[in-house]
Structures are given as C-alpha cells and as structure tokens.
Write a structure and sequence with these properties.
binds phosphoric acid mono(formamide)ester; Rossmann fold; five-stranded parallel sheet; globular; single chain; 2 domains; alpha/beta
Length: about 325
C-alpha cells in the first residue's frame, strides 16, 4: 500500500481487519519490518489518540518515529499556490513536504478542514499537496473529509464485539457547541457501507452528509426509530454539509441517554471516536456504564494503524 487516505485505498478490507486483530494478539511479530525505516507524523491540528496510537504502532513494527506538531513547532506554512509570500507565512508546503520526504520512508499527515469553503475542503488540497510533494507513501491521520484510521479501528471493534453475523449499526448525530468537521461521520459511513452490517444514519433535518459517503445506508431523521434494536450505536456531532459548516440550535434532545437506550436499544454497545464532551454530546451515565466501548475502541487505534503501516512497509 502506497497511500491510505480512504477505504478505497484498501484492496481487501476483511483481510486488513484480520491483520489488525492478528497484531493485537502478537504485537511484535513483524518487528523486523520497520528496521532502519522512519515514519514522520506531521500534525497541523491537535491530537491525542491518533498521535500516540500511530507512534506506538510504528514502534511495534520496529520503526523510528519523528513527530512534528508543525502548527506549533514549525515555520508558518503557505498552503496556496501563486501568492507572493509577503505576509505571515514563512515556508511553502512545496518545499516543506519535499524536505520531510527526504527524512522519511512514510509520512502521516493530519489536516482539518477550514469549514468555510466546501469546494476547497472537499478537494483535500492540503493532504493532496503533501502526497504530491513529499514523494513517499502517505497515511492520513485525518484529513478535511475523512478519518480512515479511526474508521478501520471502529470496524475492528465491531468485528471483535459483535454477537451476530450481521449486526445493526446506527450512526447518530449528537449535539455540540462548535461546528465540527464531517470527516469522522463521512469516513465511518463510507466504511460501514462496505461492511457486512445493516447500517442506519440518523440526524436532525439539515445535517445530511454528502451522498458520496452514504450510498447504501438507510437514512432517517427519526432517532427513536433508527435506534430500535441497534447492536452498535456510533455517536458523533458534525456540522451541516449544506449550508456548509452551519450549526442550528434546538437539537439538544438528540443527546443519547440510558433512558433512550432502555426504551429502544437495551443491548446496544456505544461507540464514539473521542474526544467527547460529557453531558453535551453523550451522557456521563452511558460513558461510565457497561454499554460504553469507547476506551476499547480507542485501544484498537493501535492495531488499525499497525495493520496499515505493515502493508506500507511491505510495499517499500
Ligand atoms: N479520535 C481521534 O482521532 O482522536 P485524536 O483527535 O485525539 O487523535
């Protein structure tokens, strides 16, 4: 694998999930693969899980790891072409990415969307510029529109914890005080639409995701109906795709509670990519109770990253 930016870069999804679960059983089995290889993890935005889990995965494979929080520690990057750099930016992404490629065998990049210009964000211009200029394999650590390492870990979690061959998986919108990207729900939907699950998306009016990610899903604005008999419920906020980045007030009752679960999905396991705002996005009683699998899910981020990096190392 030379690029991991979405599920479309994976030739065999069940095999990748199986490799993640194999890595979980025997973390150091492929420790020789990364000998004398370096991965650079470049963050244009904050991270806890992606940074630590990908670093741990790379170390389990025997790699050297460089982490650069370029937003805080690097030169201010110019991301636009055809501009005279007489403002605050110091280094163009063309040189910066090319130089990083000189120091790395694989590069991971995190870059969030601006949520102002949909065409710009959905063109993935920043992520694609890294891919173009660094000249080494690139793994997405979350881009403007997708978070594939998260989605792979989510699928691994569902595969591990499911109690029936084809579970019902529900993605439900949750309240928030900020406009958040669509990357996690887009990506989760894209992966679930390719998985052996009954997949339902529920959100308030005005929060429909782009159809390019949801083709094959059942979509409803009736949360109670969507939750009925769910085996897994994935909780996540996102801002509107149309009008882009908008947030409307008055949907506070969309927060998932144990009362809702008791009424509609008593056996459901509750997932969230984290970080989560307690009692705004998801109730404390769920997070602290036996239905929550969010820590288990975050733990699986290591094995998802390890499966992807293993395939990248094998292709070097
Ligand atoms: N879920 C996730 O990507 O967490 P971080 O933003 O902390 O990496």
């Amino acid at each position: 694998m030379k690029l991991f930016s979405s599920v479309n870069d994976v030739t065999d999804v069940p095999a990748l999930v199986a490799q993640a679960l194999a890595a979980k059983k025997d973390p150091f089995a492929n420790n020789h693969l990364g000998k004398n290889k370096t991965i650079s993890l470049v963050f244009l935005n904050p991270s806890l899980r992606t940074r630590m889990s990908t670093q741990k995965a790379a170390m389990n494979l025997g790699m050297n790891v460089i982490v650069l929080n370029i937003d805080k520690e690097g030169w201010a990057l110019e991301l636009r072409d055809n501009v005279i750099m007489n403002g605050t930016t110091v280094e163009h992404i063309r040189e910066a990415a090319a130089v990083m490629g000189e120091y790395s065998d694989i590069i991971g990049v995190r870059s969030f969307p601006g949520l102002k210009d949909r065409e710009e964000d959905y063109s993935e211009s920043i992520f694609n510029k890294f891919v173009e200029f660094c000249k080494v394999p690139v793994v997405s650590l979350e881009s403007a529109t997708r978070h594939p390492l998260q989605s792979l870990a989510d699928l691994v979690t569902i595969e591990e914890l499911k109690t029936k061959a084809r579970p019902k998986v529900v993605l439900t919108w949750a309240p928030h005080i900020k406009a958040l990207p669509q990357a996690v729900p887009n990506s989760f939907a894209e992966w679930m639409c390719k998985a052996d699950v009954d997949f339902v998306i529920t959100h308030p009016e005005g929060y429909a995701l782009s159809e390019q990610f949801t083709n094959g899903a059942t979509i409803t604005c009736n949360q109670d109906e969507a939750l009925k008999d769910a085996d897994f419920i994935y909780v996540k906020n996102w801002s509107a795709y149309e009008p882009y980045g908008a947030v409307t007030e008055g949907n506070e009752d969309w927060m998932l509670t144990n009362a809702k679960l008791n009424a509609f999905a008593p056996d459901a396991k509750i997932m969230h990519c984290l970080p989560v705002r307690r009692d705004l996005e998801l109730s404390s009683d769920i997070l602290d109770g036996p239905r929550s699998v969010v820590i288990h899910e975050a733990g699986n981020r290591v094995w998802a990253a390890q499966a992807v990096l293993k395939q990248m190392l094998e292709a070097l």
